[in-house]
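User: Second chain of the day. Same drill as before.
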Amino acid sequence: MKKAPQSQAVLLLAVNGLYLLASALAGTFLNVYLWKSRQDYVMIGWFALSQQVAVGLSFWLAGKWVKEHNKMNALRLGLAVSGFFYLLVLLLGGRASSYIWPLGLTLGISIGVFWLAYNIIYFEITEADNRDFFNGWIGLLGSLAGIIGPFLSGWMISRLQGERGYRVVFMLSLGIYAVAAVLSFFLKKRKSEGEYLWLEPWRELRRSGSRWRPVAAALFFQGLRGGVFAFLIDLLVYIAAQTESKLGQFALITSAVSLISYFAAGKWFKPRYRSAGMLAGGILLLAVIVPLVWKVSYGTLLVMGIGTALFMPLYMLPMTSISFDLMGESAESVSKRVELVVLRELSLMSGRMLGMFAFIGVLSVNSSQLAIIVLLLVLGAAPLGSWVVLSRKLHRSRAGNMQ
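Assistant: Same format as last time:
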């Protein structure tokens, strides 16, 4: 497949950076906004679960559009629906917590359509030998967005005192999505190829000797941790600190550490280090949760946040690169890249949903701090599961790189 010029990669990174900035600006405080209206962990869990339902369905259903028609329009639709979601939140105001499922489904559709199109375009402009480097840049942009967005929104919410501050933040986020949509028009339309195979993700997993089986299992474990951690940690920080400015400060510090760690990983992390990196990353990501056993405070959560930001690239760069490398290993897999991206997302979604069902189930019975910490420890061990199911593949990859 002919790769895109470097300018297209830069444009795609810019669109991605703006999307991440808008999401960090408003998304960091979205669950806090809902929590302040109704202090209910289970409600927050259902909101997160509804998003994942919509994300999975969007990936699968929109796959036909992305493969057979215009993937750039799908990217723009994802940005447009993201903006529409925050417009709905603005219109609903304090009543938003009463519309958890409609709001969650809307946000999930925006996330699913955007990331499906983005992942396909990302695959088309990268190759196996530069994918870790490109992923490092994505991590850097995510870290910069995490530094600027939450700190700025936390400051504005605290300065403008409550509802007015949230409205300003949501409006600013809406505007950034609009800028990203405009910028996306400078990305060149990419050729559509072939017919979309609706059941290919399931066929691939059922195929004897499929190399996607261990990868799908590893992605499941990734989702098992990520689904709950994505919304719960920020909420725990707010509950411990009782101020949005502290949550913004938490995001600034952890994202600054993440920026450094992703920069280092993008520069020095090589494919031959993937196995050792994933194992070390999995162990360390679990270890940084342990201080919460003794006390849940802003300080212990910050220690966990800094540790997670520092060690996450060791786990995430191999996880991202391995699945995309599989998509490019043959002409047949390249031709089925949309279906394989859908398979990748459905694997992640399955793990996220199981994690969220566990969260909802446990907290419906016992919402004590101890129950939450035990749940975090159990789900926090999931990255080790990814390493276990991928260990043979990682060692074969290392041997191949050393020859």
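The two ends are 26 Å apart (CA to CA).

User: Great, on to the next one.
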